[in-house]
């Protein structure tokens, strides 16, 4: 009798890609740089995201946060870069940026915009796993507003871990799976204010900070900072908050 060999499940090189999610972003690709378009919330959040990213990277790498070229010499990957809303300001701070996205249309928009602004940014139409398989490594990774849109978190974070040099760090942002987040980020932002197209976010895919930390630990990272990002309806501005993680939050993870 022939012995039965255990067959492992077929491995897909890019398990993190959810084709429906990527198609949603591709459909909006031409609107990335419209400050009043569907990505208006990201434009509004950008100053506070940059404050967190710049502050975290400067502390981690011992840089002077007040220097105009504070990130000079650092090779940084923006995974799921979309239209390049973060790649451009970080390039201006001296970083050597690689922006990678699973949507080709996003990459075309990002490249066209960088050409207009005269910034040199290496944009790639590639998934996290493909880039990791290619053996590239980076001093730091930006992982901003992506994890709640991926199909397989362990595969995605394992790829990020492979992409990070020893001693490197990764910033993340996502949305908490709380009742308030459903009210604000889904009912409010999608259905009432129409800031985002209905269906942009799936509440089930939001992550509690403890779940994000656990997933990061399982992939070999140590969470070293978490801050809330809080929106003030009065001023229309976002700010970092040490205690309120109830909706949006940012985190810093180090390669353990
Ligand atoms: C909400 S957007 C965030 C864009 C950008 N990080 C920002 O914050 O301005 C999420 C992006 O992740 C990309 N994406 C989703 N899954 C991905 C994957 N597995 N690898 C690379 N990019 C991915 C999508 O195409 C989309 O552009
Ligand atoms: Mg999102």
Structural write-up:
With 256 residues, the protein is of the alpha/beta class. The chain has one domain (19-255): Vaccinia Virus protein VP39 (Rossmann fold, 3-Layer(aba) Sandwich), CATH 3.40.50. Helix content is 36%, strand content 22%. It contains 8 helices and 8 strands. It has an 8-stranded mixed sheet. A hairpin with a 6-residue loop joins strand 6 and strand 7. The protein is globular and about 45 Å long. It starts with 18 loop residues before the first helix and ends with a strand. S-adenosylmethionine binds at residues 16-17, 21-22, 25, 42, 79-82, 85-86, 100-103, 106, 127-128, 144-146, 149-150, 156.
Give a quick set of tags describing it.
8 strands, binds S-adenosylmethionine, 8 helices, binds magnesium ion, Rossmann fold, disordered N terminus, alpha/beta, single chain
Give the helix/strand layout.
Layout (H helix, E strand, L loop, with lengths): L18 H9 L12 H22 L13 E5 L7 H6 L3 E6 L2 H14 L4 E4 L2 H6 L4 E7 L8 H11 E12 L3 H14 L16 H10 L2 E11 L6 E4 L6 E8 L1
Bound molecules: S-adenosylmethionine and magnesium ion (MG).
S-adenosylmethionine binds next to helix 1 and strand 2.
Look at the structure and give the mean pLDDT.
Answer: 93
The topology string of helices and strands comes to HHEHEHEHEHEHHEEE
Number of helices: 8
Main beta-sheet annotation: 8 strands, mixed
Shape: globular
Q: Could you please say which CATH topology applies here?
A: Rossmann fold
Strand content: 15-25%
Helix content bin: 25-40%
User: Bound small molecules, which ones?
Assistant: S-adenosylmethionine, magnesium ion
Distance separating the two termini: 48 Å
Strand order of the largest sheet: 3-2-1-4-5-8-6-7
CATH class: Alpha Beta
Q: Examine the secondary-structure arrangement and name the CATH architecture.
A: 3-Layer(aba) Sandwich
What number of structural domains do the residues give? 1
Quick one: how many beta strands?
8
* Structure class: alpha/beta
Which residues form runs of ≥5 with pLDDT under 50? 1-12
The CATH H-level superfamily is: Vaccinia Virus protein VP39
User: What Rg do the Cα atoms give?
Assistant: 18 Å
């Amino acid at each position: 009798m022939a012995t039965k060999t255990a067959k492992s499940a077929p491995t897909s090189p890019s398990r993190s890609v959810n084709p429906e999610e990527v198609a949603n972003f591709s459909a909006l690709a031409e609107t990335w740089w419209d400050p009043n378009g569907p990505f208006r919330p990201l434009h509004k959040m950008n100053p506070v995201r940059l404050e967190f990213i710049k502050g975290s990277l400067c502390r981690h790498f011992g840089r002077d946060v007040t220097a105009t070229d504070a990130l000079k010499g650092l090779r940084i990957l923006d995974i799921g870069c979309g239209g390049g809303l973060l790649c451009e300001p970080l390039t201006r701070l001296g970083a050597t940026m690689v922006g990678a996205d699973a949507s080709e249309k996003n990459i075309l928009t990002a490249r066209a915009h960088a050409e207009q602004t005269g910034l040199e940014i290496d944009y790639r139409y590639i998934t996290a796993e493909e880039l990791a398989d290619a053996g590239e490594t980076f001093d730091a990774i930006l992982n901003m507003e992506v994890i709640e849109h991926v199909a397989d978190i362990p595969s995605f974070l394992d790829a990020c871990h492979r992409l990070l040099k020893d001693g490197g760090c990764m910033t993340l942002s996502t949305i908490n799976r709380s009742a308030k987040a459903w009210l604000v980020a889904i009912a409010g932002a999608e259905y009432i204010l129409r800031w985002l197209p209905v269906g942009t976010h799936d509440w089930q895919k939001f992550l509690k900070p403890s779940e994000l930390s656990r997933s990061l630990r399982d992939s070999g990272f140590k969470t070293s900072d978490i801050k809330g990002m809080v929106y003030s309806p009065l001023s229309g501005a976002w700010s970092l908050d040490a205690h309120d993680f109830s909706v949006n939050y940012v985190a810093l993870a180090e390669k353990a």
